[in-house]
Amino acid sequence: MTNNNQSHDTKIGDQENVHSQSMQIKRSSDEAYAIAERDGFALLDEAIDETRLRAMLDEDSCGAFACFEGRVRNHNNASSVERLTYYGYEDLAINQGRQIIADAKEKFAITHAVAIHRIGALEIGDIAVWIGVVSAHRYPAFDACRWILDTIKADIPVWKQEYYDNESPKWLSNNG
Asked: What is the CB neighbour count within 10 angstroms for residue 88?
């Protein structure tokens, strides 16, 4: 006879293990930055080094640099946010991110773009996503930066759980 409580506990333990695996990348941070530099996109499970990313985009032929930093804010709608956790599917995210950057290069007159999305536990003020784009002129850089952000939010397999002061945590789409 099987103990239903033991089976239930095992299932919960398995789910927690899956969740914890989706809060960490399997590569070192140096490897993640190398992938971002080469392919244009990576996930990272520690604080984003925007200076390091900016250095990847130094290009003498480019007169424009556009950047977006998405930071964790202390509220969402009428709720007071304490912190949040991002979960991500690393291999799929990198493949989709690589395609997003390639598509941006085809759609806009840009030289290069780099984006990193952070996963794991984040506090108020932490950078959750960083995007940088360089081009010869400003308008393609601005347009591509926004398009990359919107496409990452829509297509990259990253999910967000928000924790509130006086409410239960909620799962939200990455656009929420």
From this structure: 25
